[in-house]
Sequence to fold (366 residues):
Amino acid sequence: MMGPLVPQEIIGADWNLFIAFVVGIGFGFILEQAGFSSSRKLAGVFYGYDTVVLKVFFGGAVTAMLGLLFFSLFGWIDLELVYINPTYLWPAIVGGIIMGVGFIAGGFCPGVSISAIAIGKIDGIVFLAGIFIGIFGFAEAYPLLEDFYMSGDMGSPKLNEMLGLSGGFFGFLVIIAALIMFWLGDLAEKKFPRKEY
Amino acid sequence: MKTKYMNPYLAGVLLGLVLLMAFFFSGRGLGASGAVKSTIVSIVSTVAPEHAANSPFYSKYIGEGKSPMKSWLVFEILGVLVGGFLSGALAGRLKLKIEHFPGISANRRLVFALIGGLFFGFGSQLGRGCASGAALTGMSVLSLGGFITMATMFGTAFVLAYFFRKNWI
Fold:
């Protein structure tokens, strides 16, 4: 049986929302277990006193990336049917910068704010209210922003293909990069000790 | 130092496996901001149907046979609420509170949380996804855009950390 299952109708589309719910439970459980429901833990990465974000985020990305590469190699998943985020160069850069401001100001990102709300963090609820206002503002201003939103359309390129590298070799480089970052994270935590909260 | 939280490397691997499960079953990754977008589209198209139909933004998501709340991300986020609650209940962390660095007031924390959310919401639309949808999921499918969003988001936060330091340390 070769994945992805729903797009090939091996599992009925009716099940898709149920799968989304189950995946969400796993996602929320792990975020909370890792301590992502605390904005002070999340912001720690930017001051060196707690680098849990770096480790969980890159650990997750590397694991899923390797999983997809191996599944594809074993013939367990057809990568052609997996959604690849499209790249619109300029809005991706500007959007990333604006989100960076939101990250250091708010101490959350949207997904983790939901897990914070789930355990009763009022600052998480206020952050979510901010997200609503921000997206509503974007939606209302969309006629003015549409040209920029659609600018720099590059299709859905993969970084390894642009660099002329195979997925496997590029994945290997990403793993090395992640290991170096984990090591730097540990160094930072030793240099900037924290209190547990 | 002993911590009450899960080992971050174990949490990272488990997070990756959940993401892999989403890819294997649904052919897509995780997300968060898209669920808020769907909720806003539903509210606006209910409260002001004419405005929604005439807007180039809302009209993309409404119309014949389209129901914005029956979306993958909306159900995933409902799951995140349940999963987060279960974890908090098991760990004894369920508590209504405003968490903030002791050096600042609770009100200051809330003001910055609101501003942060506002920026994150707006930016997530330009970036076509937030930290989970664009950066985490995008990187694991090796999408160029995913790496760009990850680098600019974390890079900007690092650059600005000095100016926001009084809020956190």
Summary: Residues 106-126 of chain B form the longest helix (21 residues). Chain B has eight helices and no strands. Chain B touches chain A through 126 residues (CB under 8 Å).
